[in-house]
Amino acid sequence: MGLRFAVLLVFVGGAVGAIARELLMLLVPTLSRGFPLDILVANVFASLVIGFSTGRHSRKVINDTWHLMVTTGFAGGLSTFSSFAYASTVLMKASITGALVAAAYVLISLMMGYIAVIFGMKIGEQSH
Amino acid sequence: MRPLDVLWVGLGGGLGSALRCWIGRLVGEAYKGRFPLSTFLINISGSLVIGYLSVLFNVDWHNRYGHGMVVNALVITGVLGGYTTFSSMQLDAARVPAKQHARVAASYLLLSVAAGLLAALAGAALARAQD
Protein backbone atom coordinates (compact mmCIF):
# COMPACT_ATOMS: atom_id res chain seq x y z
CA MET A 1 0.00 0.00 0.00
CA GLY A 2 1.41 3.38 -0.99
CA LEU A 3 2.12 5.97 1.66
CA ARG A 4 -0.30 8.49 0.20
CA PHE A 5 -3.22 6.04 0.19
CA ALA A 6 -2.37 4.86 3.72
CA VAL A 7 -2.27 8.42 5.04
CA LEU A 8 -5.62 9.18 3.39
CA LEU A 9 -7.25 6.10 4.96
CA VAL A 10 -5.87 7.03 8.35
CA PHE A 11 -7.05 10.62 7.93
CA VAL A 12 -10.63 9.46 7.34
CA GLY A 13 -10.62 6.89 10.16
CA GLY A 14 -8.91 9.33 12.53
CA ALA A 15 -11.43 12.10 11.81
CA VAL A 16 -14.36 9.78 12.57
CA GLY A 17 -12.63 8.48 15.71
CA ALA A 18 -11.89 11.99 17.02
CA ILE A 19 -15.49 13.10 16.45
CA ALA A 20 -16.69 10.00 18.32
CA ARG A 21 -14.39 10.98 21.21
CA GLU A 22 -15.75 14.54 21.23
CA LEU A 23 -19.30 13.16 21.39
CA LEU A 24 -18.30 10.82 24.24
CA MET A 25 -16.81 13.80 26.08
CA LEU A 26 -20.16 15.55 25.83
CA LEU A 27 -22.30 12.50 26.73
CA VAL A 28 -20.26 10.84 29.49
CA PRO A 29 -20.02 12.88 32.68
CA THR A 30 -16.74 13.45 34.48
CA LEU A 31 -17.10 11.68 37.81
CA SER A 32 -16.82 13.44 41.12
CA ARG A 33 -13.31 14.50 42.14
CA GLY A 34 -12.49 15.08 38.49
CA PHE A 35 -12.06 11.43 37.44
CA PRO A 36 -11.98 11.66 33.61
CA LEU A 37 -14.48 8.89 32.87
CA ASP A 38 -15.10 10.17 29.33
CA ILE A 39 -11.49 9.68 28.22
CA LEU A 40 -11.33 6.34 30.04
CA VAL A 41 -14.36 5.11 28.09
CA ALA A 42 -12.88 6.35 24.78
CA ASN A 43 -9.50 4.72 25.48
CA VAL A 44 -10.88 1.38 26.65
CA PHE A 45 -13.36 1.13 23.78
CA ALA A 46 -10.61 2.01 21.26
CA SER A 47 -8.42 -0.70 22.80
CA LEU A 48 -11.24 -3.21 22.32
CA VAL A 49 -11.62 -2.12 18.68
CA ILE A 50 -7.88 -2.33 17.91
CA GLY A 51 -7.72 -5.81 19.44
CA PHE A 52 -10.81 -7.01 17.59
CA SER A 53 -9.62 -5.67 14.22
CA THR A 54 -6.19 -7.23 14.77
CA GLY A 55 -7.87 -10.58 15.48
CA ARG A 56 -10.08 -10.35 12.39
CA HIS A 57 -7.10 -9.33 10.28
CA SER A 58 -5.02 -12.27 11.49
CA ARG A 59 -7.92 -14.53 10.42
CA LYS A 60 -7.93 -12.76 7.05
CA VAL A 61 -11.57 -11.78 7.50
CA ILE A 62 -10.73 -8.13 6.83
CA ASN A 63 -8.11 -6.87 4.39
CA ASP A 64 -5.18 -4.50 4.97
CA THR A 65 -7.13 -1.45 3.84
CA TRP A 66 -9.93 -1.86 6.39
CA HIS A 67 -7.52 -2.92 9.08
CA LEU A 68 -5.40 0.22 8.66
CA MET A 69 -8.42 2.50 8.59
CA VAL A 70 -9.94 0.90 11.69
CA THR A 71 -6.78 0.50 13.82
CA THR A 72 -4.34 3.30 12.97
CA GLY A 73 -7.24 5.52 11.86
CA PHE A 74 -10.41 5.06 13.91
CA ALA A 75 -9.00 3.53 17.12
CA GLY A 76 -6.01 5.87 17.04
CA GLY A 77 -8.25 8.92 16.60
CA LEU A 78 -10.74 7.75 19.23
CA SER A 79 -8.10 7.04 21.85
CA THR A 80 -5.78 9.69 23.17
CA PHE A 81 -2.63 9.62 25.20
CA SER A 82 -2.04 13.37 25.42
CA SER A 83 -5.33 14.14 27.23
CA PHE A 84 -4.82 11.07 29.41
CA ALA A 85 -1.36 12.26 30.48
CA TYR A 86 -2.17 15.93 30.86
CA ALA A 87 -5.41 15.35 32.80
CA SER A 88 -3.42 13.20 35.22
CA THR A 89 -0.91 15.99 35.85
CA VAL A 90 -3.72 18.54 36.39
CA LEU A 91 -5.32 16.22 38.96
CA MET A 92 -1.99 15.46 40.62
CA LYS A 93 -1.17 19.10 41.14
CA ALA A 94 -4.63 20.05 42.48
CA SER A 95 -4.61 18.29 45.88
CA ILE A 96 -3.68 15.12 47.73
CA THR A 97 -7.09 13.66 46.89
CA GLY A 98 -6.48 14.69 43.29
CA ALA A 99 -3.15 12.87 43.27
CA LEU A 100 -4.84 9.70 44.51
CA VAL A 101 -7.57 10.04 41.89
CA ALA A 102 -4.86 10.53 39.23
CA ALA A 103 -3.03 7.39 40.37
CA ALA A 104 -6.28 5.41 40.29
CA TYR A 105 -7.13 6.84 36.87
CA VAL A 106 -3.75 5.85 35.41
CA LEU A 107 -3.78 2.32 36.82
CA ILE A 108 -7.43 1.63 35.96
CA SER A 109 -6.87 2.95 32.41
CA LEU A 110 -3.79 0.78 31.89
CA MET A 111 -5.41 -2.38 33.26
CA MET A 112 -8.75 -1.97 31.52
CA GLY A 113 -7.11 -0.99 28.22
CA TYR A 114 -4.85 -4.01 28.37
CA ILE A 115 -7.70 -6.39 29.17
CA ALA A 116 -9.79 -4.81 26.39
CA VAL A 117 -7.07 -5.44 23.74
CA ILE A 118 -6.60 -9.07 24.80
CA PHE A 119 -10.37 -9.65 24.95
CA GLY A 120 -10.85 -7.95 21.56
CA MET A 121 -8.15 -10.12 19.98
CA LYS A 122 -9.71 -13.28 21.44
CA ILE A 123 -13.17 -12.60 20.03
CA GLY A 124 -11.68 -11.29 16.78
CA GLU A 125 -9.72 -14.51 16.28
CA GLN A 126 -12.81 -16.69 16.52
CA SER A 127 -13.64 -18.17 13.16
CA HIS A 128 -17.14 -16.85 12.81
CA MET B 1 -21.07 22.81 21.59
CA ARG B 2 -21.48 24.25 18.16
CA PRO B 3 -21.78 22.06 15.08
CA LEU B 4 -18.65 23.79 13.83
CA ASP B 5 -16.69 22.37 16.76
CA VAL B 6 -17.41 18.85 15.52
CA LEU B 7 -15.99 19.83 12.16
CA TRP B 8 -12.83 21.24 13.77
CA VAL B 9 -12.36 18.12 15.87
CA GLY B 10 -12.81 15.92 12.80
CA LEU B 11 -10.37 17.94 10.72
CA GLY B 12 -7.80 18.07 13.53
CA GLY B 13 -8.26 14.38 14.36
CA GLY B 14 -7.76 13.42 10.73
CA LEU B 15 -4.64 15.57 10.40
CA GLY B 16 -3.17 14.35 13.70
CA SER B 17 -3.83 10.71 12.80
CA ALA B 18 -2.32 11.15 9.34
CA LEU B 19 0.75 12.75 10.93
CA ARG B 20 1.04 9.79 13.32
CA CYS B 21 0.83 7.35 10.41
CA TRP B 22 3.51 9.24 8.47
CA ILE B 23 5.89 9.59 11.44
CA GLY B 24 5.29 5.93 12.25
CA ARG B 25 6.50 4.94 8.79
CA LEU B 26 9.56 7.21 8.99
CA VAL B 27 10.57 5.88 12.41
CA GLY B 28 9.85 2.33 11.24
CA GLU B 29 12.26 2.75 8.35
CA ALA B 30 15.00 4.22 10.54
CA TYR B 31 14.67 1.92 13.56
CA LYS B 32 14.27 -1.84 13.29
CA GLY B 33 14.48 -2.79 16.95
CA ARG B 34 11.81 -4.45 19.06
CA PHE B 35 10.86 -1.48 21.18
CA PRO B 36 7.71 0.26 19.85
CA LEU B 37 9.66 3.47 19.37
CA SER B 38 7.28 5.35 17.06
CA THR B 39 4.24 5.14 19.35
CA PHE B 40 6.43 5.99 22.32
CA LEU B 41 7.95 9.09 20.66
CA ILE B 42 4.57 10.21 19.32
CA ASN B 43 2.88 9.95 22.71
CA ILE B 44 5.67 11.71 24.58
CA SER B 45 5.92 14.59 22.09
CA GLY B 46 2.11 14.97 22.05
CA SER B 47 2.08 15.14 25.87
CA LEU B 48 4.75 17.84 25.85
CA VAL B 49 2.79 19.94 23.36
CA ILE B 50 -0.55 19.53 25.17
CA GLY B 51 1.00 20.71 28.44
CA TYR B 52 2.60 23.66 26.71
CA LEU B 53 -0.50 24.79 24.78
CA SER B 54 -2.92 24.27 27.68
CA VAL B 55 -0.96 26.68 29.84
CA LEU B 56 -0.21 29.07 26.99
CA PHE B 57 -3.88 29.42 26.08
CA ASN B 58 -5.14 29.21 29.67
CA VAL B 59 -7.32 26.23 28.91
CA ASP B 60 -9.76 25.51 31.73
CA TRP B 61 -9.16 21.77 31.68
CA HIS B 62 -12.45 20.65 33.20
CA ASN B 63 -14.51 22.80 30.86
CA ARG B 64 -12.44 22.45 27.76
CA TYR B 65 -15.15 21.45 25.31
CA GLY B 66 -18.24 23.19 24.11
CA HIS B 67 -16.87 26.67 24.76
CA GLY B 68 -16.21 27.66 21.22
CA MET B 69 -12.45 28.05 21.49
CA VAL B 70 -10.99 26.85 18.22
CA VAL B 71 -7.69 25.92 19.88
CA ASN B 72 -9.55 23.42 22.10
CA ALA B 73 -11.54 21.77 19.34
CA LEU B 74 -9.02 21.88 16.52
CA VAL B 75 -5.70 21.48 18.29
CA ILE B 76 -6.18 19.88 21.71
CA THR B 77 -9.10 17.53 21.11
CA GLY B 78 -8.46 17.23 17.38
CA VAL B 79 -4.82 17.27 16.30
CA LEU B 80 -3.20 16.15 19.57
CA GLY B 81 -5.94 13.64 20.37
CA GLY B 82 -5.62 12.15 16.90
CA TYR B 83 -1.83 12.30 16.87
CA THR B 84 -1.35 10.49 20.18
CA THR B 85 -2.80 7.06 20.79
CA PHE B 86 -3.63 4.96 23.78
CA SER B 87 -4.90 1.95 21.85
CA SER B 88 -1.69 1.32 19.85
CA MET B 89 0.29 1.48 23.07
CA GLN B 90 -1.97 -1.23 24.53
CA LEU B 91 -1.70 -3.33 21.38
CA ASP B 92 2.11 -3.10 21.58
CA ALA B 93 1.94 -4.30 25.18
CA ALA B 94 -0.40 -7.17 24.28
CA ARG B 95 1.99 -8.31 21.53
CA VAL B 96 4.94 -8.91 23.86
CA PRO B 97 5.94 -12.57 23.32
CA ALA B 98 4.30 -14.93 25.80
CA LYS B 99 7.59 -16.01 27.40
CA GLN B 100 8.43 -12.65 28.91
CA HIS B 101 4.91 -11.35 28.90
CA ALA B 102 3.71 -9.84 32.17
CA ARG B 103 6.85 -8.06 33.31
CA VAL B 104 7.86 -6.58 29.95
CA ALA B 105 4.31 -5.49 29.08
CA ALA B 106 3.78 -3.83 32.47
CA SER B 107 7.20 -2.12 32.32
CA TYR B 108 6.48 -0.75 28.87
CA LEU B 109 3.09 0.64 29.92
CA LEU B 110 4.42 2.19 33.12
CA LEU B 111 7.46 3.64 31.31
CA SER B 112 5.19 5.20 28.68
CA VAL B 113 2.95 6.75 31.31
CA ALA B 114 5.82 8.03 33.46
CA ALA B 115 7.50 9.61 30.42
CA GLY B 116 4.16 11.03 29.25
CA LEU B 117 3.38 12.64 32.61
CA LEU B 118 6.88 14.13 32.84
CA ALA B 119 6.58 15.47 29.30
CA ALA B 120 3.19 17.06 30.07
CA LEU B 121 4.62 18.67 33.23
CA ALA B 122 7.67 19.88 31.32
CA GLY B 123 5.48 21.38 28.60
CA ALA B 124 3.39 23.24 31.15
CA ALA B 125 6.51 24.47 32.98
CA LEU B 126 8.00 25.67 29.70
CA ALA B 127 4.92 27.77 28.92
CA ARG B 128 4.91 29.25 32.44
CA ALA B 129 8.58 30.13 32.21
CA GLN B 130 7.84 32.26 29.17
CA ASP B 131 5.31 34.47 30.93
Outline the secondary-structure elements.
The complex is a heterodimer of chains A (128) and B (131).
Chain A: H1 3-27, H2 37-58, H3 64-78, H4 82-94, H5 96-125
Helix pairs in contact in A: 1-2, 1-3, 2-3, 2-5, 4-5
Chain B: H1 3-30, H2 37-56, H3 70-83, H4 87-94, H5 101-129
Descriptive key words:
heterodimer; A: 128 residues; mainly alpha; 5 helices; elongated; B: 131 residues; 76% helix; globular
Structure commentary:
The complex is a heterodimer of chains A (128) and B (131). With 128 residues, chain A is mostly helical. Chain A has helices at 3-27, 37-58, 64-78, 82-94, 96-125. Chain A has one domain. Chain A has five helices and no strands. In chain A, helix 1 packs antiparallel against helix 2 (37-58), helix 1 runs parallel beside helix 3 and helix 2 (37-58) runs antiparallel to helix 3 (64-78). The two termini of chain A are 27 Å apart. With 131 residues, chain B is mainly α. Helix content of chain B is 76%, strand content 0%. Chain B has helices at residues 3-30, 37-56, 70-83, 87-94, 101-129. Chain B starts with a helix and ends with a helix. At the A-B interface, helix 1, helix 2, helix 3, helix 4 and helix 5 of A face helix 1, helix 2, helix 3, helix 4 and helix 5 of B.
Strand residues, percent of chain B: under 5%
Q: Tell me the count of domains of chain A.
A: 1
Mean pLDDT over the full residue set of chain A: 94
Strand content of chain A: under 5%
The total of helices of chain B stands at 5
Question: What is the element string of chain A, with H for helices and E for strands?
Answer: HHHHH
